[in-house]
Design goal:
Blueprint (H helix, E strand, L loop, with lengths): L3 E3 L6 E6 L4 E10 L4 E7 L2 E9 L6 E7 L2 E4 L3 E3 L3 E7 L6 E3 L5 E3 L2 E6 L7 E9 L4 H9 L3 E4 L10 E4 L3 E8 L17
Parallel strand pairs: 1-3, 2-4, 3-5, 4-6, 5-7, 5-8, 6-9, 7-10, 8-11, 9-12, 10-13, 12-14
Antiparallel strand pairs: 13-16, 15-16
Length: about 190
């Protein structure tokens, strides 16, 4: 094992699409735009990786696009100034999943787009950071304009926020919302 380097040479262009199966990069770093211009698209699968760097240096550009897929990191996530992460969250939670020991440096931009309401109860997130409370770090990234989200696809837009549930820190919502009463649909198997 070792590094996965997309656009490793100056002025090079590289693109990787991962659309299913099982992908594990347990050692090394996944570079999306190491010295050139790189793009990685992950759809309908979670890639397990140690470290991910998007736009590694001043001369590189990187774009990590998630659509119903995600990256589970045991190590660090570094998004350089010319790096962008876009996460389209579908009906189930997912996207960037950081381990408790991970570090997260965001000098570029991360945009989390909530496409529709969740299909299961619980936290509906586009970013999860396991372990101790990281709301201060993520709130600073949001205030600086580096970490943004769009929740117009939800039935209750304006409800996505950064929160900690004593186990993980999330960018997302709790579903169902606190204080909600769920009623069975008349004629459904759950209705009496």
């Amino acid at each position: 094992f070792g590094d996965l380097r997309i656009a490793d040479v100056t002025n090079s262009i590289g693109e990787v699409f991962i659309t299913g199966g099982e992908v594990q990069i347990p050692d090394g770093t996944t570079y999306v735009g190491k010295s050139g211009s790189g793009r990685m698209t992950v759809s309908n699968v979670t890639v397990e990786a140690k470290h991910v760097t998007v736009a590694a240096n001043g001369g590189s550009h990187g774009s990590l696009n998630l659509s119903g897929g995600g990256i589970a990191l045991s190590g660090n996530l570094n998004v350089g100034t010319a790096g962008a992460v876009t996460n389209h969250v579908e009906g189930t939670a997912g996207g960037i999943d950081l381990a408790s020991a991970s570090t997260f440096t965001l000098n570029g931009r991360m945009n989390i787009i909530f496409m529709r309401d969740p299909s299961v109860n619980g936290p509906h997130w586009g970013l999860r950071w396991r372990g101790v409370d990281k709301t201060t770090e993520l709130s600073a990234m949001h205030a600086a304009g580096n970490l943004v989200w769009n929740d117009n696809g939800l039935s209750r837009p304006g409800t996505v926020h950064i929160f900690y549930d004593q186990t993980n820190t999330y960018v997302g919502i709790t579903y169902p919302p606190p204080g909600s009463v769920l009623m069975p649909v008349p004629g459904s198997a759950d209705a009496v």
